[in-house]
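pinging the channel bc i need a second pair of eyes. not urgent but kinda urgent?? the chain im working w is below, pasted from the shared doc
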Amino acid sequence: MKGAGEDGQWRMEDSRPFPFSTFHLLSSLLVITTVALLQAGCRTAEPLPAIDVSAPGWHILQGQAVWKPPQNRPELAGDLVLATNANGNFLVQFSKTPFPLATAEYVDHEWEIQFGADKHVWRGSGNPPDRFPWFQLPRALAGDDLNDGWKFERRFGNLWRLENSRTGETLAGEFFP
């Protein structure tokens, strides 16, 4: 823009009525329309249905554990329940009676993790995130390979320890016979 003339009207240096070409206008509209359609097609994963661990085929372990979260947060001690079935589905719940502190579920390639009583919830499909020990524990106890950074060791009796060497996070516990 040049500025206001003697008549008070603003004038463009470029004499064209609109500084954008038709191509730029159409491509901008195409991008906006595509983004709007993609956002309309995305949705948050639905909560997983309740798991009936009393149904045939489920194996339940109960015990106690100490969880040391990453980033120099204090340790938490609590009760630990691990329910697994032959399909690879599982439920892990770490609680301080009567409050659940962490609950991780994996059912038919869908996963969900909650911290607190529905305070922080993440859901998805496919492989669960590597960063949570709750998703590593069933694999570790089954003798499967763990994801990068995680190490599992069995100790005397029913004692075990799961550790992420990169974050310093640990989960150590014992399941009762």
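so Helices lie at 22-41, 133-141. and The first strand starts at residue 3 and ends at 4. — does that match what u expected or am i reading it wrong
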